[in-house]
Amino acid sequence: MPLLDLKTTQCMLWGDIINHNPQQTLSILRHSIKPKPRYLENIYATQLFCIYVNNLSEKKIIDIHSALINKKAYVGHIPASYFSPGKALLSTSSLTQTFLKFSNILIMPHPNDMPYSEDENILAFDFSQFGYTCRHIPEVYYSLFLTFKIERPRAHLRY
After folding, report:
1. DSSP 3-34
2. Strand, helix or coil at 27?
């Protein structure tokens, strides 16, 4: 979060990269992740967790990559501005809508089965330390009006 610009708007999704064919998944990842991933040889595809952030400039992608490159958990990034097998894989994975970042405000869904409380941070991550304020709306409205999904061409829906 400290690497994102407080003035921009982005949607953030995260989750496991899931595909019914783990070998195909690893093959797609090996060819899609930039730069060439250092250690995808001895892991299972189901061990990968993805954080997807849209609306990033090339400079911001380079800045984020430079800041994370020496972290053990970071394997690289998948360019998703245009269609690629990597983008198609992300579009079919179980990435869930986490929040919408509008400048320094994080808009999150509030679970429908929980009593609504005044902008409680249900993710329990201290976003305020990076200058963000959390706001919530009921999940039913969030999913109807604010949910983002990664675009995928029809031809790539085949399995």
Report:
1. TS-TTSEEEEEEEE---S-HHHHHHHHHHHSB
2. helix
Q: How many residues does the chain have?
A: 159
C-alpha 6/C-alpha 102 separation (Å) is: 8
Give residue limits of the domains in the chain: 9-152
Output the pTM of the full model.
Answer: 0.81
CA–CA distance from 14 to each of 54, 121, 154 (Å)? Answer: 12, 17, 23
Do 113 and 74 form a contact (C-beta atoms < 8 A)? no
CB 45 within 8 A of CB 57: no
In a 13 Å sphere around the CA of 148, the CA atoms on its Cβ side amount to: 20
* pLDDT, averaged in runs of 10, over the chain (159 residues): 90 85 84 77 74 91 92 86 85 84 91 72 84 88 85 61
